What we know:
heterodimer, A: alpha/beta, 5-stranded parallel sheet, 4-stranded antiparallel sheet, 9 strands, globular, B: mainly alpha
Amino acid sequence: xxxxxxxxxxxxxxxxxxxxxxxxxxxxxxxxxxxxxxxxxxxxxxxxxxxxxxxxxxxxxxxxxxxxxxxxxxxxxxxxxxxxxxxxxxxxxxxxxxxxxxxxxxxxxxxxxxxxxxxxxxxxxxxxxxxxxxxxxxxxxxxxxxxxxxxxxxxxxxxxxxxxxxxxxxxxxxxxxxxxxxxxxxxxxxxxxxxxxxxxxxxxxxxxxxx
Amino acid sequence: xxxxxxxxxxxxxxxxxxxxxxxxxxxxxxxxxxxxxxxxxxxxxxxxxxxxxxxxxxxxxxxxxxxxxxxxxxxxxxxxxxxxxxxxxxxxxxxxxxxxxxxxxxxxxxxxxxxxxxxxxxxxxxxxxxxxxxxxxxxxxxxxxxxxxxxxxxxxxxxxxxxxxxxxxxxxxxxxxxxxxxxxxxxxxxxxxxxxxxxxxxxxxxxxxxxxxxxxxxxx
Lengths: 211, 220
């Protein structure tokens, strides 16, 4: 099992965000995307998720190209983006349950997800009363809903307190142990063993040299 | 499977925000009631214009509801998650359209006979009024999802949405009104209903695909 990209180029609004980028993730691997603001970390994660189209290059899983079967790719990934997708009128539990239904997850997984990120006490509180950090925890709790092997995390630690960061680190470690893959964009040094860094600056710099 | 899940989710959200649907129906009733004030309470005249007024105001009321179809989900990131869920985006948009009809089209359909009563629509018109609404309002919901998806993220999306959608729903207005008129005049209505059904079937096939493509564009 391997998730990889070859020669990826991403163009947003007539601006090349990154070019000639290769990556490869195997079970148990963590890739940390580092780089300045606007260096394309989010774009790369969205490309990996299949939300953003690529101008050149290809993404693959094992031997198959992801473009051939995007539906299957969606089943094997979990994406946590900048937006927390929390509905203000639903309670914390209802919010998580609505995503669980879409992923065919059991209610046990919902309860497990809530406990893992310390949301058990808040289960019956409507989403509109949550703080930024609590909303983010709820967004992260979605990770536990499915056994999807690939986690794509975009600045997951924003607004989290130290306790929640520990919970996230623990969740990532547990995910790796079961053969999971993680791609994480972050500015905060995380407590993750041997994460392979991809410096996004290299792929924009390469571009400037070519001009 | 995924379709039912999306519909349930939308309905649950709609129940929690029931005011949104209520406002649409109130707009429908109020707008329709304005006409007699403007053109005078002459009963024959009102009965004559009733089908057109009901259908036109129903369309305008529906326009108000499309802005909320995808915009909140787009802003809070739910749309992204929906697009990444195993359920295909085509099915998800179809679910949205069905839920929109249940929360907007159906209430409009229930309110329509009340307005017909105010306008003293001849008795022969009621059953056909309901039939045209049953066939026509889902078409409006479906076409509305395409318009809402296309204008997602655009500035002044609401106005743009009406400009896009209103011309597309003119056939529904024509055959809906003509069907009721025909029933009152004692002519056959089957042809009008068949054409409305054809519009519904056509949009049922095309709208989810078109809306899903527009949503992918908006998320890209």
